[in-house]
Amino acid sequence: MSAGFSLGFLSRVYSPSADPKVYRDTLELFRVAEELGFDSGWVAQHHFASENGRLPSPLVLLAAIAQRTRRISLGSGIIVLPQEAPLRLAEDAAVLDLLSHGRLELGLGAGFDPETFVAFGRAHEARHRDYEQHLQQLLNALGNAPLTDSGSRLLPRAHGLSHRLWEATSRVELVAERGHGLIMAPNPHLPAHAGAALVTRYRNAWTGDNGTPARIARVQALFPAPDEATRRDILAYVQRQQSIGVFKGEIDADFDTTLKRLGVLHGPVAQIIEQLQQGPTLSAHDQLILQVQTVSTPLRDALRALEIIREHIAPALGWQPTLATGNLS
After folding, report:
1. Cβ burial, residue 90 (10 Å; 0-12/13-18/19+)
2. Is pLDDT above 80 for 3?
3. What is 86-132 written as a DSSP string?
4. Which of 20, 36, 227, 303 is the most buried (most CB within 10 A)?
5. Neighbouring-strand partners of residue 220
């Protein structure tokens, strides 16, 4: 990993119960992260509290965050595009981008949870086909293409947002061809070096025809001091992924082996730094996005993890913080 990358964090808006406090905690997480100099914050979409993720509507929460922050970029990591009405998504994204003064980073994916596809009346096995169709409709709207025979177009306009799209997929050549950023995370069924190979394929396929730079968002879970609750949360996560067919095979008898397969970094700061240095090389247009929460993580522990990242881990990798801009009054 080289110097000059952007630093972000990912919140899955986890909570063991349906307590609205989880949204207020996420607002505070973004506020403090901005003060610490983090460049971006991302939230994940979970329908029906799958994995105890409590956020079905990422753009709604990001709109609230936009009014309490000034500088930090606001990312969706990810929105399940096959389950969305593309034009409505474009309208919501355009309004949020205006409210945030162009800070939205729109991350998209095909999704994987069969239960949610049933609820939305979509075929799980057709999700990649639907993803491509919905993406084209979304791009048409964001690109100011006429949407009706009479020439109706997206309003408000989303100036520049089409250049801030990200995709989470292994079909990296398609992402590069479209000029989008690539969101990548460890795959428990592939060796650790597979991520670097994916990045190489993406960069080699890049044309730059739309005027944007190649850009990687490397997502990694990081727990400097995992306690028993964290370990229980991770095991429960793996068991659910196994039950829906995402995690293949048996669960490892040794928990540290499971953590390694998942790409979850933990232990002394020096060890975490060394593990991060072994990952794909990041440069000026790329992002390192770190997840520091499981279902049971208290807000204070998440904030402390962000402080450790900002003070000890990210600087050792070559990152420099953006100066704080103060709070909104």
Report:
1. buried
2. no
3. HHHHHHHHHHHHHHTTS-EEEEEE----HHHHHHTT--GGGHHHHHH
4. 36
5. 290
Backbone angles phi, psi at 301, to 5 degrees: -70, -40
d(CA 95, CA 157): 9
Nearest to 88 by CA among 59, 111, 122: 59
Tokens of 285: 């247009």
Q: Comparing C-alpha atoms, which of 39, 167, 56 is closest to residue 106?
A: 167
Pair of tokens at residue 224: 């400097």
Mean pLDDT of 91-102: 98
Which pair of structure tokens corresponds to residue 160? 């520049």
Which pLDDT band holds residue 323 (cuts at 50, 70, 90)? low
Place of tokens 């095909």: 110
Q: Which residues pair with 8 in a beta bridge?
A: 40, 289
Q: What is the mean pLDDT of residues 224-252?
A: 87
Question: Largest Cα–Cα distance of the chain, in whole Å?
Answer: 63
Residue 326 has pLDDT above 60, yes or no: no
Contacts of 259 (CB under 8 A, 6+ apart): 234, 266
166: amino acid identity, one letter = W
Q: Report pTM.
A: 0.94
- Cα 292 to Cα 282: distance, rounded to the nearest angstrom: 20
Q: How are beta strands 40-43 and 73-80 bridged, if at all? A: parallel
